[in-house]
Amino acid sequence: MSSEQGYETVLEIKDLGISFSTDEGDVRAVNGVSFALKKGITLGIVGESGSGKTATTQSILGLLSENARIDNCSKVIFKHPQKGIIDLIKLGKNDTNWSDIRGRYISMVFQEPSASFSPIYRIRDYFYETMDLHLKIKDKNKREEFSLEMLSKVGIPDPKGCFGRYPFELSGGMKQRVMIAIALLTHPLVVIADEPTSALDVVVQAQILLLLRKLQQDLGMSLIFVSHDFGVIRQIADEVAIMYLGEVVEYGSIKQITASPFHPYTKLLLGAIPRFEHRNTFLSSVPGDIPSPLNRPSGCPLHTRCPSIIKGLCDKSSPNFLTIKGKHKVRCFFCEKLMKEGN
Amino acid sequence: MLRFLAYRSLGMFITLFVVSIMVFAIMQLPPGNYAERYAFRKFSGSSTTITAKDIENIKIQLGLNKPAWKLYIDWIWGITSRFDFGPSFAYETSVNNIIRSDIGYTLLLLFGSLILVYLVAVPLGVFAAVYKHSIWDYSLTILGYMGFALPPFLLALILMYFLNIHFDLSVGGFLSSKFQNAPWSFAKIWNLIEHLFVPIVVLTWSNIAFQAQTIRATMSDEINKPYVTAATARGMPRKEMLFKYPLRVAINPLLSTIGFDVNRIFSDLPIVALVLNLPELGQLLIKSYMSLDMYTAGAILLLVTFIIVFMNFISDILLAIIDPRVRIYGGNSR
Ligand SMILES: Nc1ncnc2c1ncn2[C@@H]1O[C@H](COP(=O)(O)OP(=O)(O)O)[C@@H](O)[C@H]1O
Ligand code: SF4
Ligand SMILES: [Mg+2]
Question: Where does residue B220 fall: left (phi above 0), alpha (psi -120 to 50 degrees), or beta otherwise?
């Protein structure tokens, strides 16, 4: 697989396109997304609500709803430690090959901890389920010991008590810690966290972010972290993909993106981070509304809201990716022009 | 769980107590009593004048001369201590003798119907929800229309006609005449099952349609919930996952309406029994009520309400077993 700066790629998404068929017509949720996830790296995906972040991440584990259609040319290449290279898009929803991928090598942490547990089962049932499915630890004492160890690793103050509780007896933050513990139980290669802190209050959010960052580094796993909030992404990501209306518009290391954002949308998004000094002018949010994906704008998807629009070009044709430096890439006519003039 | 059980049992006993008083009041409701009726029947046409004294004597003879509260206590005591429902005036024997065989058949029909409802409705509803727009889904829709449109007596007549013409089966009553007084044997049981088929299908028909629709709706809801996606993402194989996660929650409304189902079956039972010529408690209740045979009527009323209250209790217990929230919060919280 491609290796850049000595990092090995564990998961690569190529030309991902997803449409949902609805009563009102086809919704183009993801349009030609590509990125590579390297070993031991946290990739942040950021974009407004509706920009296709969830659809992108759910397609990796074949979790999209029935009405989703994935383009034929799309690929999700996973390097399975035993079975070698697998294109996950080609696996059917119920393919038996999923059994040692889902929850084993690729785990997920979801947005709403309360809705992500069935109230019927105790916390320990979820641990035992994962062990039965993936770890085959039979000894009862070992199972418990292993689970409690994981629970204390994620900062549960009373692991033993928590173990016997029902999800609805725990707070949102505790539930999210438990979900993380279960996701990490198998020491997966990739963890996908889709807005894992968005349903939590700010203090708990910060704690969970720290926890995820620490565990990601300790276990050397790769993390895909999704958020609509650039402020959150900045705290955790090594690399960032900025999404708008189903497309990645800019990609780069967190340093490159924060120090020198190129794309007009990235700049708008960065301006939308609440800053301490500007507490009173909270959120100079992105002006205008995200267009309905039912009728995507022609040309560059941002042209209906873009302050730097080049009339006659941006609304007619789509820009291609242009490498700025290293992995820093951008997709914008205006930026292309700037670069040419700069040279 | 123990506290929950104790709490619900207590509730059930209080309900039963209140119900028994109401039943007793209803028993006393029709004007006159059996003593007058008896006197009238015995002496009518014999040109004897019936005096108040004669009626009083008959009352003493029947044990009806006591005040109502004493009658109630004797009645309840007999039932709870000896399982004795008192005398049947009209049949001049004990109520127990009269209702014994009918209660057996009634319970057989009731539980047979309940079991069939769940056995058919759950898989059908689940398949329809999991395989949307499949043959299961469409047949459920059709069944739904027919289940609500076809009155039970009409269905009973159609089935009887069909079975008679095509299978030469005479269905009506619970047993063929040659088995009526025969000792229980394999052949007799089979004969009974054959005869139960039509009434049970008729009684379950609309319930199956209704409950399968319920399961389909709740299952469709549950299948799209985040906890189902999360379970899939943890690597649970599809079939196992459907059983372990959405079905466990989708089954709740079904369990909580068991009492409702029992009610519905009981209210369809008399008309089905009439069409199919089945001995059954409903008709006996009306007959004995009209002839002021108060203990017979009371026994039937009490038994029917008891079954409904008891099935509600069972439904509560099942819900608590399946849903820890009910167990922990006593069903007061979601
Ligand atoms: N199951 C679905 N059916 C129809 N449209 C959907 C479905 N899931 C997502 N979409 C649409 O696809 C677009 C992208 O959604 P999503 O991936 O959830 O965005 P994000 O996670 O970035 O908020 C949205 O316009 C959304 O309305
Ligand atoms: S391509 Fe044009 S419309 Fe799109 S972001 Fe660049 S300048 Fe704006
Ligand atoms: Mg989302």
Answer: alpha
Over residues A111-136, mean pLDDT: 94
The answer, yes or no, to whether any atom of ligand 2 lies below 6 A from the CB of A309, is yes
User: Which residues is A85 bridged to in the sheet?
Assistant: A79
CB contact under 8 A, A93 and B238: yes
Please give the distance, rounded to the nearest whole angstrom, from the Cα atom of residue A264 to the centre of ligand 2. Answer: 7
pLDDT, residue A272, reads: 60
Ligand 1 neighbourhood includes A27 CB (under 6 angstroms): yes
The reply to whether ligand 2 has any atom less than 6 angstroms from the CB of A192 is: no
**Is the CB of A314 inside a 6 Å radius of any atom of ligand 2?**
yes
Interface probe with A: pick from B134, B220, B224, B227, most Cβ of A within 10 Å: B227
C-alpha span between A249 and A266 (Å, rounded): 8
Residue A52 CB–ligand 1 contact under 6 Å: yes
ipTM computed for the complex = 0.91
For residue A22, the SS3 value is strand
- Ligand 2 centroid – CA A239 distance (Å): 22
A118 and B245 within 8 Å at the Cβ level: the answer is yes
Query: How many Å lie between the centroid of ligand 2 and the Cα of residue A67?
Result: 31
Give domain limits for chain B.
Answer: 2-95, 100-330
At B276 the pLDDT is 81
* Contact pairs from chain A to chain B, CB under 8 Å: 76
* Chain A partners within 8 Å of B243 (Cβ): none
Nearest ligand, CA of residue A28? 1
**pTM value?**
0.85
Answer whether A7 touches B (CB < 8 Å): no
Residue range B100-330 in CATH 1.10.3720.10: yes
pLDDT tens for each residue of B245-299: 999 999 998 998 888 889 888 888 888 888 888 877 777 888 888 888 888 889 9
Task: Work out the minimum CA distance from A210 to partner chain B, whole angstroms.
Answer: 23
- Chain B contact present for A172, CB below 8 A: no
**B232-242 mean pLDDT:** 95
Residues 6+ apart with CB under 8 A from A234: A254, A258, A273
The identity of residue A5, as a single letter, is Q
Please say if the pLDDT value at position B31 is more than 70.
Answer: no
**Binning pLDDT at 50, 70 and 90, where does residue A210 land?**
very high
3-class secondary structure for chain B?
A: CHHHHHHHHHHHHHHHHHHHHHHHHHHCCCCCCHHHHHHHHHHCCCCCCCCHHHHHHHHHHHCCCCCHHHHHHHHHHHHHHHCCCCEECCCCEEHHHHHHHHHHHHHHHHHHHHHHHHHHHHHHHHHHHHCCCCHHHHHHHHHHHHHHHCCHHHHHHHHHHHHHHHHCCCCCCCCCHHHCCCCCCHHHHHHHHHHHHHHHHHHHHHHHHHHHHHHHHHHHHHHCCHHHHHHHHCCCCHHHHHHHHHHHHHCHHHHHCHHHHHHHHHHHHHHHHHHHCCCCHHHHHHHHHHCCCHHHHHHHHHHHHHHHHHHHHHHHHHHHHHCHHHHHHCCCCC
| A188 phi/psi in degrees, rounded to 5 | -70, 160
CA-based nearest residue in chain B for residue A182: B234
Tokens for B265, please give them.
């079956």
Residue A198 near chain B (CB below 8 Å)? no
**pLDDT tens per residue, range A235-290:** 999 999 999 999 999 999 999 999 999 999 999 888 765 555 444 443 445 677 78
